[in-house]
Design a protein that fits this description.
heterodimer; A: 141 residues; alpha+beta; Beta-Lactamase; 39% helix; globular; B: Beta-Lactamase; five-stranded antiparallel beta sheet; 3 helices; 18% strand; golgi apparatus (chain A)
Chain lengths: 141, 169
C-alpha cells in the first residue's frame, strides 16, 4: 500500500508552520525540518526564474529515487507539500483537501495568529484521518 | 466536499511551435560546475544573462540534490544539509515538473550532469538521458582533441544530439 511519509506547511516567507512525520526511518529533528522547509521555499522560487516560458508558478512535483514530493501553493502564497512513496496516486487532491482543512480549522480559528506555527487540535485530528490510506483512495474519486 | 475547480490560475503555457520538437533547452555540466554545453531550441523567455543562468541552474541542482538526500525517508544514515555529496551517494532526484516545464536530470559517476528541459506533459526521460550520455561519450569523451573541462564544440555531437532530441516525443 503506497504510503505518505510526511507533510509540511510553510508560510509566505518560507517559515515552517506545520510538520507531520508518519515515517519510521529517516525522522528529522526540528532544526533539520526547519532548514529543509526554507530550502524548499527558495528552490520553489528559483525554479520560476529558470522557466523557458512565461507564467511559471513553481515546482509541483519532484521525483527522486526513493520518494516523490508533491507541492501545492495557494493563492496567498502558503505552500503545502507532501513526501510520499513514488507513484502514490491522488496526492494533488489530498493537498487541496488539506488546504480546505487549513482554512476551516486554522484560519477561521480566532485564536490563531497568521503565519505562526499551527497548534489547532481539530486540524490535527482531521488531518490524521485524511492521511490514512483508505481515505486517500476516497479523495481520488 | 468541495474541491478547487480545474481552472488554472496562470494562463496555459504556449505550445512549442518547432516541428516535432518538445525540448526547450539542454545543459551539460561537469563536476566543477563548468557548463560544457548549452543548447536552446525553444526559449521565449530569458530572465537572466547566460552566465548567471548557468550558475543559477547549477546552484539549483546542487541544492535540490542536497535536499533530496536529507529528506530521504528510507535511509537512516544521512549527512548534514549542505555537505557536498559524491555522485551516487545518497538519494538523488531525477526530475521535477512545474506548470510550464519539466526538468529531467541525470548525474553520471564521473560527475557529468545532463539536464533536459521539456514540455510539462513529457514522460520519464531517464532512458533518453542515458542515450544522450552515450552520445557524449562517443563524440566528446573519446575525441582526442577535446580538452576536458572546456565547452564542447564538436559538430558531430551537435548534429547527433539535435536529431535525437527531435525524435523524443
Amino acid at each position: 500500500m503506497a504510503a505518505i511519509y510526511s507533510l509540511y506547511i510553510i508560510n509566505k516567507s518560507g517559515g515552517l508552520i506545520f510538520y507531520k512525520d508518519c515515517g519510521t526511518k529517516g525522522r528529522m529533528d526540528t532544526n533539520d525540518s526547519l532548514r529543509v522547509a526554507s530550502l524548499w521555499h527558495s528552490m520553489h522560487a528559483i525554479s520560476q526564474q529558470l522557466s523557458p516560458v512565461n507564467g511559471c508558478s513553481g515546482i509541483e512535483l519532484l521525483q527522486a529515487d526513493t520518494f516523490d514530493l508533491h507541492c501545492f501553493q495557494s493563492l496567498p502564497g502558503t505552500k503545502f507539500f507532501v513526501v510520499c512513496e513514488p507513484g502514490t496516486p491522488h496526492m494533488e487532491s489530498l493537498l487541496r483537501y488539506v488546504y480546505e482543512l487549513y482554512t476551516d480549522y486554522v484560519l477561521k480559528n480566532p485564536f490563531y495568529e497568521i503565519e505562526m506555527p499551527i497548534r489547532c487540535e481539530l486540524f490535527d485530528i482531521n488531518l490524521t484521518q485524511a492521511v490514512q490510506s483508505d481515505r486517500v483512495a476516497l479523495l481520488g474519486r | 466536499m468541495q474541491f478547487f475547480g480545474g481552472s488554472e490560475i496562470n494562463p496555459s503555457p504556449q505550445v512549442p511551435t518547432a516541428s516535432g520538437n518538445n525540448a526547450h533547452m539542454m545543459y551539460v555540466f561537469n563536476r566543477n560546475g563548468v557548463c560544457l554545453l548549452y543548447k536552446e531550441w525553444n526559449r521565449p523567455l530569458h530572465t537572466l544573462n547566460p552566465q548567471q543562468d548557468h550558475k543559477l541552474m547549477f546552484g539549483l541542482l546542487f541544492s535540490l540534490k542536497s535536499l533530496t538526500a536529507k529528506m530521504d525517508p528510507v535511509n537512516a544514515e544521512k549527512g548534514n544539509l549542505g555537505v557536498p555529496q559524491l555522485p551516487g551517494q545518497g538519494c538523488s532526484f531525477h526530475s521535477f515538473r512545474t506548470n510550464t516545464y519539466k526538468l529531467s536530470f541525470m548525474e553520471t559517476p564521473s560527475g557529468i550532469k545532463i539536464i533536459l528541459v521539456t514540455h510539462p506533459k513529457t514522460g520519464d526521460l531517464r532512458e533518453s538521458l542515458k542515450y544522450i550520455y552515450g552520445l557524449y561519450v562517443e563524440y566528446v569523451a573519446k575525441n582526442p582533441i577535446y580538452n576536458p573541462g572546456s565547452p564542447v564544440k564538436s559538430e558531430l555531437f551537435n548534429t547527433a544530439l539535435d536529431q535525437y532530441v527531435r525524435s523524443i516525443s
